[in-house]
Amino acid sequence: MRPYLVGNWKMNGTSADLAEISRIAEHAARFDMVDVALCLPATLIAAAQSGRGTVGIGGQDCHAETSGAYTGSISAEMLAGAGASLCIVGHSERRTAFAESDAAVQAKAAAALAAGLDVIICVGESLATREAGEAEAFVLHQLHGSWPGAADAPSRLAIAYEPIWAIGTGRTAQADEVAAMHAAIRAGLVGAIGTAGQAVRILYGGSANPGNAHALLSLNDVGGLLVGGASLKADTFNPMIEAAAQVAKARKLA
Ligand code: PGA
Q1: Which of 16, 37, 80, 120 has the fewest other C-beta atoms within 10 Å?
Q2: Hey, how many other C-beta atoms are within 10 angstroms of the C-beta on 203?
Q3: How much of the chain, in percent, has pLDDT values that exceed 90?
Q4: How many other β-carbons are positioned within 10 Å of the β-carbon of residue 190?
Q5: In sequence order, what are the residues at sequence separation of 6 or more whose Cβ sits closer than 8 angstroms to the Cβ of residue 72?
């Protein structure tokens, strides 16, 4: 499976940052064994089209309805119409700050697929849940509750495992914690949808950076990274694209 490197810009970026996207796109074009995408603020999606090259441009959330009286919200159709090809749903910041339930995330994922977008569904436990020894059960419960249904093309869906305690904290999960969770998610997917579950990419997210990208991407069943802070600048994101390309090359030779 091709490594998938996805930046999540969160609520960062104005038109002044479009040059950064071009710098990332120019670099990504040199590494055709890696899939690269940037999930931008919705305000930048249309403007990012001209400099994006082969980089996919995505949204960070969408409404489950196609249109209507939902002041301030953006539908998956609107993202697609602006040029997006993917959308993140269920990020822990949405689940926590906006009280999004698994059912709400599931509805958003279904809406995004229906609009023709690829979807990244985020899951991840809090520190308290991990310390209670319940991380795996919690994440698998979230996964089952957020998955939009067996009929949807697994190749258009990715899962991002993002332990909440590792997001924006500089504290990356340990290799054994990541590997164990990704194996559990893979088993959960295969249990739910059969061998098609092997085709779903499972990304890791949480303080991924140029220093740890190679090691994380080398772990079994880590199909890519969802990168917050380090994706904002080409100076930090481009070396991560290179790390992904190195891992892809090594896998091909192995
Ligand atoms: P971080 O964010 O890389 O800044 O920890 C990751 C995310 O929230 O997707």
Answers
A1: 16
A2: 25
A3: 91
A4: 14
A5: none
Helix axes 102-114, 135-146, angle to 10 degrees: 40
Catalytic-residue membership of 162: yes
CA of residue 13 relative to chain centroid, distance: 18
Per-residue b or e along 116-136, where b marks 16 or more CB atoms closer than 10 Å to that residue's CB = ebbbbbbbbbbeebbeeeebb
Q: Cα dihedral angle (43, 44, 46, 49), rounded to 10 degrees?
A: -170
Residue of 20, 136, 162, 182 marked active site: 162
Gap from CA of 246 to ligand 1 centroid (Å): 22
61 vs 161: CA distance, rounded Å: 16
User: Any residues with Cβ below 6 Å from ligand 1, and which?
Assistant: 8, 162, 167-168, 205-208, 226-230
Ligand 1 pocket test: which of 93, 227, 232 has the largest number of ligand atoms within 8 Å of its C-beta? 227
Active site annotation includes 77? no
User: How confident is the model over 170-224, as pLDDT tens digits?
Assistant: 888 899 999 999 999 999 999 999 999 999 999 999 999 999 999 999 999 999 9
The 3-state DSSP class for residue 29 equals coil
Q: Which ligand 1 atom sits nearest the alpha carbon of residue 206?
A: 5
CA of 79 to the centre of ligand 1 (A): 22
Residue 151: CB atoms within 10 Å: 8
Catalytic residue among 63, 91, 100, 182: 91
Residue 124 zone, left/alpha/beta (φ > 0; ψ -120 to 50; rest): left
User: Which residues sit opposite 63 in a β-bridge?
Assistant: 75
